[in-house]
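Hi there. Long-time user, first ticket. I'm pasting a complex I've been working with (about 233 residues overall). I'd like to know whether the download I got is complete or cut off, because the file seemed smaller than I expected. Thanks.
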Amino acid sequence: AQSVTQPDIHITVSEGASLELRCNYSYGATPYLFWYVQSPGQGLQLLLKYFSGDTLVQGIKGFEAEFKRSQSSFNLRKPSVHWSDAAEYFCAVVYNAGGTSYGKLTFGQGTILTVHP
Amino acid sequence: GAVVSQHPSRVICKSGTSVKIECRSLDFQATTMFWYRQFPKQSLMLMATSNEGSKATYEQGVEKDKFLINHASLTLSTLTVTSAHPEDSSFYICSAGRVGGSKTQYFGPGTRLLVL
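Hi, the file is complete. Here it is re-exported in full:
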């Protein structure tokens, strides 16, 4: 069965430090990969997505992610974290979404980011 | 663009009553909408997928008679929790995919349900 693993449940960084959140997915043909962010009590906001093409994708709020097929990874990065980035981050994958089908999103467990001043 | 709203944002009800949650795509048409449930400190679990004008597809273990889903138009889907019980208390989030869109789901802000 398809799965997504976020190995880090909780990460703490200092404001201004760099950030990398890890995401690994189980092997599957043509994965569609997403990163979402959720603030407490809120819905999910799309940060970025990868479908094909350039394996380094840029998103909103200064985030980027790199798809590495050989490592089945899609890690999220930001060079300099701001206090407002404190939230929970979810990696998600869609498989086998052929044609116009949306397929099913499978989410990782989430990583809570705490930012120290 | 791609704004999804949910109403209500928070609801408290008595055990045994039914609660309806609305999910609307405000600036796009959504062929497909999804309903998720999120327990505290956990990830999202897909409950069902609804396509406009057809019956919803429920995930294994989700009671279709308890969680009624209607997707009557391209901008509105509703989830009705029937005969709610305290164990149904949770955070319910919907998402929507654009007509002819790019497999991206846009999420609503969620509805906090508390059943007393």
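A couple of notes from our side: Residues 14 and 43 of chain A are 25 Å apart (CA to CA). The mean pLDDT of chain A is 90.
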